[in-house]
Specification:
alpha+beta; Butyryl-Coa Dehydrogenase, subunit A, domain 1; 5-stranded mixed beta barrel; 8 helices; globular
């Protein structure tokens, strides 16, 4: 049975003695996070990864996510309870902006906690990971109204986020995107199209799922110069700010993969779904790159986290 022990002491050694953590006190968030606080957070984060997330990894991967006949997706046993604990402990709030309920602590700290979570259970860690990326893109490019509507619930984890770029005929070459956006008189858009390979596209962990979707506004220029970014909630946001009626967003199927079965990689259909422009018209790739760059760091952390847990288990086996 594989095991995992979060390398808290090694990480503290790196932060203190190799990177000279104290030298960064003038950077945002660092003055609020002295090393004794960092140590306390990392010890708790390590414990959460070892005791709550790791035991669900193998069983979760074997069981996987299941798409039900009504289009809902059920995550493996234990994921819901673990996600609830993740949110209650505020793990998703560490580096998020304080104006919207975040703690404003250094990204460094959130990255280490993400590493521990990914080592213990990568499929699980991807749900909050995608949310953090969507939060970053909205924080940087969305209007104040959109930020107020979406960010507090996403940072708290009550709602999760996704990144919708890939379509059945285009992955690398996003200039070929066909999903279309039709402007409405109230300033919103209607989004129609199909996206594939959407990580955390549908699941039962959160009350609402907030999709960031690349689409082409009617009449936009060809290629990447005509792509805009929209925020499209699975459920409309009710007047009291909670998740309301369905919004024309559905999961068509779950992709078959070699691993990470505990994370639902979905085909997502948007049928006249209400969406709101994030950033400027036809500048969607630039706005989405905030999320894609977060995802790149996240994928790098996944690589590190998998090599750490592979190393630990190889040592145990060799001994
Ligand atoms: C587990 C998983 C999760 C994913 N999650 C998401 C997600 O959350 N959101 C999302 O939008 N997408 C997601 N994706 C999709 C991913 O972004 C695409 O797989 C990726 O963009 C590559 O597209 P493709 O698979 O169509 O490959 P292709 O674009 O067909 O590329 C295949 C190969 O051809 C090469 N290639 C392509 N074009 C050229 C060219 N012009 N010149 C030279 N070489 C070229 C590529 O480098 C690659 O090696 C996910 C994929 C996986 C496997």
């Amino acid at each position: 049975m594989p095991s995992y022990s979060a390398p808290v002491d090694d990480t503290l050694f790196l932060l203190k003695d190799v990177f000279g953590y104290d030298r960064y006190a003038d950077l945002p968030g660092f003055s609020d996070a002295p090393l004794d606080l960092v140590e306390a957070i990392l010890r708790e984060g390590g414990k959460f990864a070892e005791e709550v997330l790791q035991p669900l990894n193998q069983s979760g991967d074997r069981q996987g996510c299941v798409r039900n006949d009504d289009g809902t997706v059920t995550t493996p046993d234990g994921f819901r309870k673990a996600y609830q604990a993740f949110c209650e402990n505020g793990w998703g709030t560490l580096a998020a902006h304080p104006d919207y309920g975040g703690q404003g602590l250094p990204h460094t700290l959130a990255t280490v906690v993400n590493e521990f979570a990914s080592s213990a259970n990568m499929a699980f860690a991807m749900y909050p990971g995608l949310t953090a990326g969507a939060v970053a893109a909205l924080t940087t490019h969305a209007s104040e109204d959109l930020k107020k509507t979406f960010l507090p619930n996403m940072i708290a984890g009550t709602w999760t986020g996704t990144m919708n770029l890939t379509e059945p005929h285009c992955g690398t070459d996003l200039g070929l995107i066909r999903t279309k956006a039709v402007p409405q008189t109230d300033g919103s858009y209607r989004i129609t199209g199909t996206k594939i390979f959407i990580s955390a596209g549908e699941h039962d962990l959160a009350e609402n799922i907030i999709h960031l979707v690349l689409a082409r506004i009617e009449g936009a220029p060809e290629g990447t110069k005509g792509i805009s970014l929209f925020v499209v909630p699975r459920n409309q946001v009710a007047s009291d700010g909670t998740a309301g009626d369905a919004n024309g967003v559905s999961c068509g199927s779950i992709e078959h993969k070699m691993g990470i079965h505990g994370n639902a990689t979905c085909v997502m259909n948007f049928d006249d779904a209400a969406g709101w422009l994030v950033g400027e018209e036809n500048k969607g790739l630039k706005a989405m790159f905030i999320m894609m760059n977060e995802a790149r760091l996240g994928v790098a952390v996944q690589g590190l986290s998998q090599s750490e847990v592979a190393y630990q288990n190889a040592v145990t086996y060799a001994k």
